[in-house]
Amino acid sequence: MPRAALLLAIALAAMPAAATEEPRFETLRQAGDFELRLYAPMIVAETFVPGDLSQASGDGFRVIAGYIFGNNVSARGAGAEKVAMTAPVTMEAASEKIAMTAPVTVEAGATEGYRMHFVMPSAYTLETLPRPRDDRVRLRAIPAQRVAVIRFSGFAGEDKVRERTNELLDWVRTEGLDPAGPPRLARYDPPWTLPFLRRNEVMVPLDRGPRQEGPGEPA
Description:
By secondary structure, the protein is of the alpha+beta class. The protein has three helices and eleven strands. Helix 1 (3-13) packs across helix 2 (53-68).
């Protein structure tokens, strides 16, 4: 097992599933495997890594895992601080060559790398989170946002992710919604999880222009 996958396995094994925090959201609309969600504001720790999806997943996890496992400086001035692991682990292709209308076509060499992020536990603010020692890690606040989502199980290889992304963008277009950023892959489970039990999602952030509002959705 690659070292990054082993670190992820150890981290998730140490926490009961019920204790693993996930970002808070409200479901505004659902149709089969598709959802329109409203996410609460969140803070993420993120890093950019070159390479394909498989390589970037391992390298990115290693960098951010180092931060949450103690490669940081506590905001309280008490040395390093461990930050609880959350789910999902999220990957976003960092390339302007990926079309935002269906279908998505990624040509060889078009993807320059990936941005990986972990959502920080909701008990923290930017002021109370420990500071990264590794300058490849950045902390960023994300405001409340609408997100279109497609859920799927099994392995999340590049071909399957591309297929599900195309399906999601078709649904987004059918619903009259406008993407506001690149698709991102969210994986919730440790590496040993049986394929049919794995929980994966492709997410697309949405524009906040004129629209039909869902219940509880901000104007």
